[in-house]
Amino acid sequence: MPNARAPHLTRRGVLAVGGALGLGVALAACGKDDAGSGGSGNGSAKDAGSWSFKDDRGTTAESKSVPKNIVAFTGTAAALYDYGIQVKGVFGPTRTRRASPMSRPVSAAKYDADIIVMDNRTGTLQPADLEKSKPTWAKLPAVKAGQVIPRVTEPVYSYAKCAPILEDLAKAIANAEKVS
After folding, report:
1. DSSP output for 121-163
2. What pLDDT score was predicted for residue 157?
3. Confidence category of residue 47, pLDDT binned at 50, 70, 90
4. 72 and 115 share a domain?
5. Residue of 70, 96, 97 lying closest to 84 (CA atoms)
6. Does residue 18 lie within any of the structural domains?
7. Residues 121 and 171 grouped into a single domain
8. How many domains does the chain have?
9. Cβ(170)–Cβ(136) below 8 Å
10. Which of 106, 132, 109 has the alpha carbon at shortest distance from 119?
11. Range of the structural domain that residue 67 is part of
12. Per residue in 81-107, pLDDT tens?
């Protein structure tokens, strides 16, 4: 659509970047210290001095000490746990004590929408389910126009993996027609 808004910094975006940085920090802290590792320092985190990590793009992250407090995306936190690293917190799809997904449903019929972007995970409500259980779904202008697109909610945080997702989203928005 020609009047698309410019992206703005969100709390979720900041947390995603922080989680990705924390993952890089944690994984580098777990590796061996050899000439090809990109990391510096050896021994345990308690007696370690300064720390640095050079990623595949040549960008170096540096710190005066090995990171001790890590907050990670759920999938990343699980991988770190497998390596014996306890994270202080997680963000992303988690479950409550009652083992129900932490989601807040929104009555889409309240809002006129030219495009509907839906979570693409198999455990979430999908358009086919809505067609069967919610009669108002088929009456929505975006649904009538076939402008319901999937949203990848658990991407791999790398340029190579995220770029196609963002390109697909931009293409869907740009090609959407005003229907409401």
Report:
1. -TTS--HHHHHHH-TTGGGSHHHHTT-EEEE-SS--SSHHHHH
2. 75
3. low
4. no
5. 70
6. yes
7. yes
8. 2
9. no
10. 106
11. 11-91
12. 888 888 888 877 776 566 555 544 467
